[in-house]
Amino acid sequence: MGKYLRCFTLFFICMCLLTGCWDRRELEERASVLAIAIDQAEEDENLFKMTVQIPIPIKIAGSSGQGGGSNADAVKIMSATGRTVTDATNNLQMRLNQRLFLGHTRVLALSEEIAKEGIHDIMDSFRREPQIRRLLWPIVVKGKASTLLEIKPGLEQIPVVFLMGLIENGMKLGRIPDQTLGDYFNQTSNVTMEPFLNYVEATKKEVSWKGVAVFRGNKMVGILNRVQSWALIQLRNEKPGGDIVIPLPNTKKGYVSFRPHFVKKKLMIQEQGDTKSKGSESFSATYHCELQGDIVELTEDLKIPPEQFIVQMQALIKKEMEERAKKLLLQLQKQYNSDILKLGLTLRAKHYHEYWKKHNWKEDFRDFPVRVKYTIKLRRLGMEMQ
Amino acid sequence: MENQQRNFGTWQLTSIMISSMIGVSILTIPRTSTVLLHQMGWISPILGCLLASLAVAAIVYLGKQFPGTTFVEFMPRIFGTVLGAICVFLFILYQFFNAGITARLFGEVVVTSVLPNTPLEAVIITLLLLVVFLCCHEIEVVARVNELLIPFLLLPSLLIPLVSLMNADWYNLLPFQIESWTNVMKTGLNTYTLYTGYELLMVYFAFAIPGARLGVASMTGMSFALIVYVITVVAGIAVFGYEELQRLVWPTLELIKVTQKTGWFLERFESAFLAIWVASVFTTIGNMLYATIFSLRRLFRKGLRFQQITAIVTMVPLFFLTLVPKNIVELFSFTQQFTTVGLLITIFIPILLAITQFIRNQFNNVREVNNEKGGT
């Protein structure tokens, strides 16, 4: 009798406890969002328009026999408006048969317009939502953000997968900075630096990386074009950036292309006991940047001995890079007044008492003297002798 | 009473100590330690450790003075019946409340981060049922459970912060300087709670095998906890920066979420971490409640049956106790207030006990010497 009772109790307990997870939702019961785009609504300035991209599992490759079918069907793009992001999500949910699931979101597209107004209010819901991963990529899109989700790249069935590939590959090549949502959050909280995000332009069929969008606080203040962005990631992340194409002097249509492979950066902060400005030490920063790389293209023969050629090219590239960096600093300091170089972090870390406590970096970055010195190490000339 | 089986080895004692100390607080420590100290936050676990080590030393001393007895017996012996009884009572009450708060914090983490639709009650009840099950057994089971679970706790708690250091910015840890010493003291006093759990040794030392090295066990335990905490705080500061840490409720969980390297086996590691962490919280709460209930049993000089009934009965008020804080803000302020009380019970009482005992020993020695002199 006792044995039966025991068995029964055990059975009962198992029935109660082993029912599985309370929050269980099967994969097919979820509408997994791969990308979110946030725009201003056309009809009302105070409303947000949220666009999401949801893949349709059945239509995705592998389903044989459908070869040549239209790619457009592999994803569903929906948009809804609302006063806040959550409001828009709710409105969207009301039009879906399954529950929206944001755990797989990889891209968050923001329109340039909205970024310029400030994205503090938008980001709050992304900070709070536990499903949102800090490793997703926020991207500022020229024009309307929804265009980024509507591209039809042809190479991939799902546009976002294409976009992810583009960024990921760019990151591996060292040409596109890896700027995640978590990085953005850290940079906005950190008083020593300002955030930046990748900036892309999307057309009907294509998307292309245009550079980075510079922020000050939560507001976008401007963009850096590709060339400047590459200079930025050399100085900031020690990533090589893209090939450097320079017109050859004293030729008609001659160009030389330099491909940096390795970057080493050293930031030196000098302290000069400047007597002119009444005893207050004046600080200045110098970036020493070393680029190692090859010549990959030379469209006109210079007809000079190889030894001289190397020296000349190194000088040429050095001059070009220093000019680019100068332009970058000019833009960052005078135009945008936004320290995305992480210079403030180094200053705070190394010269806390002498500099950091006496200055308001948010304002003083503008006038901080920064120099950039490049060292070019030309290693190889490709498969050519010269 | 003193003829019980004493079969806890040194390693078992160490694992009991480590798993009682490392519990919920590891999830919040990067934030709590940087509130006042900013980039120097990693100092605070060291300070907390120094503070707690005093008490641990006291407990080890007591353990050696009274082999085979728990605090229930030696507290009245040192302090006298009335004062001793009050101490015992306070201690039991403290363990009870501490277990309650830990269970609630555990529930909050699970509900906010993983299972938003699961009622908090369900999470807590499951945990408490497990603990009741543990409490229905003899004390060797506790040692074995701890010994069994310790590798699952050791490895990830070291591995995760170390791996996350890959995307760290070391300049976040600088400048190396302290703004105000009062803040350092304040944080030190607050963060010693990271190490609460060592006071349970006052129970478990009673079952050490004669000859087990209590000092070694507690030193290993303390230093391991210290290393884990310091690494976690350093990783938190280096990865997020102290400003961002202030905005995160469970910084360590976020740390795991951003720890992902493509090509590594560590993608989406947070669910694995939580699974391991559940085990570590279970051992924390289990050890605490077992100590509570076991000391009640010792107090009333009853057998295992009494212990089983008490376990089941005490779970009911404990469960309702966990539901007292109305929201997460209130919960954190409760925890804060509880820290102050805990300081009295887990630091001052053991130290006072040890000092009293030490003085008493000295007196006795003097008397004996005098007696000997008188005898000759």
From TrEMBL, chain A:
Main location group: membrane
Gene3D superfamilies xref list: Nutrient germinant receptor protein C, domain 3
Domain Spore germination GerAC-like C-terminal: 210-382
GO cellular component terms, semicolon-separated: membrane
Subcellular compartments: Membrane
Pfam families xref list: Spore_GerAC, Spore_GerAC_N
Organism superkingdom: Bacteria
Any single biological process term in GO: spore germination
Domain Spore germination protein N-terminal: 23-201
Keyword annotations: Germination, Lipoprotein, Membrane, Palmitate, Signal
The UniProt record lists the keyword Cell membrane: no
Membrane association type: Lipid-anchor
PANTHER family reported for this sequence: SPORE GERMINATION PROTEIN B3
Family (UniProt): Belongs to the GerABKC lipoprotein family.
Protein known as: Spore gernimation protein
Taxonomic lineage from the root: Bacteria, Bacillati, Bacillota, Bacilli, Bacillales
TrEMBL record, chain B:
Topology in membrane: Multi-pass membrane protein
GO annotation terms (biological process): spore germination
Keywords: Germination, Membrane, Transmembrane, Transmembrane helix, Transport
Major localisation: membrane
A Pfam cross-reference name: Spore_permease
Bilayer-spanning residue ranges: 12-30, 42-62, 74-97, 117-136, 148-172, 192-212, 224-242, 272-294, 306-325, 337-359
Record has Ribonucleoprotein as a keyword: no
Subcellular location: Membrane
Keyword Signal: no
InterPro entries: Spore_GerAB
GO cellular component labels: membrane
Similarity comment: family membership: Belongs to the amino acid-polyamine-organocation (APC) superfamily. Spore germination protein (SGP) (TC 2.A.3.9) family.
Name of the protein this chain belongs to: Spore germination protein YndE
Organism whose genome encodes this protein: Brevibacillus formosus
